[in-house]
Design a protein that fits this description.
The complex is a heterodimer of chains A (about 290) and B (about 325). Chain A has about 290 residues and is an all-alpha fold. Helices cover about 70% and strands about 0% of the residues of chain A. Chain B has a two-stranded antiparallel ribbon. The chains are: A mainly alpha (about 290), B mainly alpha (about 325).
C-alpha cells in the first residue's frame, strides 16, 4: 500500500496515554516474576528484614541448593517431563489420525461425527462421571489416568481439521493416481505439510500436561505427583522442603524455597515461549475461523 | 404413487437400479475403507472418554454402589435433585457462581477489546510486538504458579504489598488470601492478568483485517482518531465481539474451577464456594462421597450451561446474523 501523507490528526495526548497504558501492562506482566526471582536468590536474613523487593539482596543460591537436595523434587520433575512428553505424543497421534478423515467433507458420516465433536464442547459428563469412568476402568493410580483421557481435545482437533482442509486437494489426487493409499498420504503428504499446525497443537497439549495438578491430585499416588502438584503442596503447607519447617530466621528460607520451586517449574515455559510464540498465536487464529 | 410403492417394497432380483446402486456403494467402500479404519480407534476413544461420561450423568437419577461401575444400581427418580434444591449450601454455591461469573464477565470481557484497539493505535511496530509477546505469556503459566506468586506477594508478613502499606500507614498486615472480601477482586484481577493479552489476539486479528479504505475515507472526511475508533473500528469488529460474547456466556458457569480451588480457604468459603468446588467437596474430596448427589448438581449446572449457549446463540443470530453453529 502506498500511504498518502497523513492529514494532521496527530493526537499527541492520545499517543502519550496509550504509551503509558502499555508500559503499565508490561510492568504488570513482568513484576510478579521479578519479585519471585529476587526472593529466590536472596538470603533468608534479607527476606526476614524485609529488604527484598525487585532485586536479589545478599545474593544466595541456598534456596536452590535445598530444593535440589530434596529427592522428591527431582522425582516430581521427572514425572512432569514424562507426562508432558508421552501425553503430547499420544494426543498428537490420536488427533492426527482423527482429523485427517474428518477433514474430508465428502466422506459419509463425517458430518455426524463433527456434530458429536462440537456438541461435546458444550455439554459433557461433569467431574463425577469422568472420575467414576476412570476408576471403573481401573486406571486410578496409574499414569494412564493422566496420559489417556485428555488426548482428544475438541478445540485442538478443530484446529487440525481446519488446517488439513487448507492443503490443496490436487496433491492428494496426484498421490492417489500414483497408487498411494490413504495411510501413505497421511504419513508422506499430510504430516510434512501440517508441521506448523502440529507444532501449535503440540505446544498447547504440552502446556496442558506441564501445568496440570488437579487431575494428578485426584487420580495419582504421591510418588507419581508432577512438579506443579508438589508446588501446590509446598505452598499450602502439606509438604515441607529442606529447613522450611524451622522456626525464627530459618522459617524465612521457606519463602525463598517456594520462590525457587516456582522459578524452576516455570522456567521451561518462560525460556521457550519467546521462540515458540508465533506457533501459539497461529493456533488461536486457525481455531477462530470456526468460532 | 401406488406402483412406485410396490416396487420399493419388493424389489426384483435383477433390478438394474438396485444393481447399479450396489455397485456404486461397493466402489465407494473400496475407495474409502481406509479412511474409516483410520477413524475407528480415535472415534472409539473419543466416544469412551467424552460420551460415556455424558451418559454417566444418568447416575443423577440412580443410587451409586461402590465397585459396580459408574452408572449406579437402582432408579431413585428425582430424589437427589430434591435433596440439593432444599440444601442452603447448594444455593450459596449457586449464588456465588452467578455473582463471580457475572462480575468477571462485566469486567474482563471489555478489557481485551479495549486493549486490542489501543495496541493497534501504537505506531511503533517494535514496541507493539514487545507488548504483544509479553502480555500473551501469562496465559501459559500454570494456575498453581499464579496463585503461589499471588500468595507470596500478598503474604501478611513478608509480602510486597503489606510491607508497602506498613511503611506508608504503619497499619498491620492484612491476610488478603484469607479474607472473604478480597476473594472476588483477586479472582478477577488474576484472570485479567492471565488472559487480557491472549483474548486480545482475536480482536487484533479482526482489526488488522479491516479494509484500509474505510479509515482513509474517514480521514478524508476529517474524522479524528478517536472518531475513527468509534465509527469504523468498533462497528467493523462487532461480529467478532458478538461471537466471543456468545462463547463467554455459554461458558458462564464454568469458572476457573482449579483456580478457585487453589484460592479456597475455610474462612473465605462464604464467597469462594462455587458449584464446582461444592460438587468436588461432596464427592471426590469427601470422606463419605455422595456421588449421585454430586452428579445431580453437575448435571443441573451442565444443562443450564447448554441452555445459556443455545439461547445466546439464537439471540445473536436474530440480532446480528452471527452465530457459532
Amino acid at each position: 500500500m502506498n500511504k498518502k501523507p497523513r492529514i494532521k490528526d496527530n493526537n499527541l495526548l492520545l499517543d502519550a496515554l496509550i504509551w503509558v497504558i502499555m508500559i503499565f501492562v508490561l510492568v504488570a506482566c513482568v513484576v510478579p516474576f521479578l519479585y519471585i526471582i529476587a526472593m529466590s536468590f536472596s538470603s533468608s536474613r534479607a527476606i526476614l528484614n524485609n529488604r527484598v523487593s525487585l532485586w536479589p539482596v545478599e545474593f544466595s543460591t541456598e534456596a536452590y541448593r535445598q530444593v535440589f537436595a530434596y529427592p522428591n523434587f527431582f522425582n516430581a520433575y521427572g514425572n512432569t517431563l514424562f507426562y508432558t512428553f508421552f501425553g503430547t505424543l499420544i494426543a498428537l497421534c490420536m488427533m492426527l489420525v482423527f482429523a485427517y478423515p474428518l477433514s474430508k467433507t465428502r466422506l459419509k458420516g463425517q458430518g455426524i461425527v463433527m456434530k458429536l465433536v462440537v456438541f461435546s464442547m458444550f455439554f459433557g459428563g461433569g467431574l463425577v462421571p469422568n472420575y467414576l469412568l476412570i476408576s471403573s476402568l481401573r486406571m486410578t493410580g496409574t499414569v494412564f489416568a493422566i496420559l489417556l483421557p485428555f488426548a482428544i481435545n475438541q478445540f485442538n482437533l478443530i484446529i487440525l481439521i481446519n488446517f488439513i482442509r487448507s492443503i490443496p486437494e490436487e496433491l492428494e489426487e496426484a498421490a492417489r493416481i500414483d497408487g498411494m493409499n490413504y495411510f501413505g498420504i497421511l504419513v508422506r503428504i499430510i504430516v510434512p505439510l501440517s508441521t506448523a499446525a502440529l507444532a501449535t497443537v503440540g505446544l498447547y497439549t504440552a502446556v496442558f500436561f506441564w501445568n496440570d495438578w488437579f487431575y494428578s491430585l485426584i487420580y495419582l499416588r504421591s510418588t507419581q505427583y508432577p512438579v506443579m502438584l508438589l508446588l501446590r503442596n509446598i505452598v499450602n503447607g502439606t509438604t515441607m522442603v529442606g529447613e522450611a519447617g524451622g522456626v525464627g530466621e530459618k522459617a524465612f528460607i521457606a519463602i525463598a524455597i517456594k520462590s525457587a520451586v516456582i522459578i524452576t517449574s516455570t522456567l521451561p515455559i518462560i525460556l521457550l515461549y519467546p521462540f515458540l510464540q508465533k506457533y501459539f498465536v497461529k493456533g488461536m487464529l486457525i481455531g477462530a475461523v470456526k468460532g | 404413487m401406488d406402483a412406485g410403492g410396490t416396487q420399493k417394497g419388493a424389489p426384483m432380483k435383477n433390478d438394474p437400479l438396485i444393481h447399479r446402486r450396489r455397485l456404486k456403494a461397493g466402489r465407494y467402500f473400496a475407495n474409502n475403507w481406509q479412511l474409516y479404519v483410520m477413524m475407528l480407534v480415535p472415534l472409539v476413544y473419543f466416544l469412551l472418554f467424552k460420551y460415556v461420561p455424558m451418559f454417566g450423568n444418568i447416575l443423577a437419577f440412580r443410587r451409586f454402589r461402590p465397585l459396580t461401575g459408574p452408572f449406579g444400581v437402582r432408579w431413585e427418580g428425582l430424589r437427589y435433585f430434591n435433596q440439593f434444591l432444599s440444601q442452603p449450601d447448594f444455593w450459596r454455591a449457586f449464588r456465588n457462581t452467578l455473582t463471580l461469573a457475572a462480575m468477571n464477565l462485566v469486567i474482563n470481557f471489555p478489557i481485551p477489546i479495549m486493549f486490542a484497539i489501543l495496541l493497534n493505535e501504537l505506531r511503533s511496530l517494535k514496541f507493539k510486538k514487545l507488548v504483544q509477546t509479553v502480555s500473551y505469556m501469562p496465559r501459559f503459566v500454570s494456575t498453581v504458579v499464579v496463585i503461589s506468586i499471588l500468595t507470596e506477594m500478598l503474604s501478611p508478613s513478608s509480602g510486597m504489598l503489606n510491607r508497602l502499606i506498613q511503611q506508608l500507614t504503619g497499619q498491620p498486615g492484612v491476610f488478603y488470601m484469607n479474607e472473604a472480601a478480597y476473594f472476588r477482586p483477586l479472582y478477577i484481577l488474576t484472570d485479567m492478568w492471565q488472559y487480557t493479552g491472549w483474548s486480545a489476539i482475536i480482536y487484533l486479528a479482526a482489526i488488522t483485517g479491516i479494509n484500509g479504505d474505510l479509515f482513509e475515507a474517514g480521514r478524508i472526511d476529517g474524522a479524528s482518531r478517536v472518531q475513527l475508533i468509534w465509527y469504523v473500528t468498533l462497528p467493523t469488529i462487532l461480529p467478532t465481539i458478538m461471537v466471543m460474547f456468545i462463547l463467554r456466556v455459554g461458558h458462564l458457569l464454568s469458572l476457573g474451577f482449579e483456580k478457585v480451588l487453589l484460592m479456597y480457604t475455610p474462612s473465605n468459603s462464604v464467597v469462594s464456594d462455587i458449584i464446582d468446588t461444592y460438587v468436588y467437596r461432596m464427592s471426590i474430596a469427601a470422606t463419605a462421597p455422595q456421588y449421585s448427589y454430586a452428579t445431580a448438581i453437575g448435571l443441573f449446572s451442565g444443562v443450564i450451561g447448554l441452555i445459556l449457549v443455545s439461547s445466546s446463540n439464537l439471540l445473536s443470530r436474530k440480532l446480528t446474523g452471527e452465530s457459532i453453529y
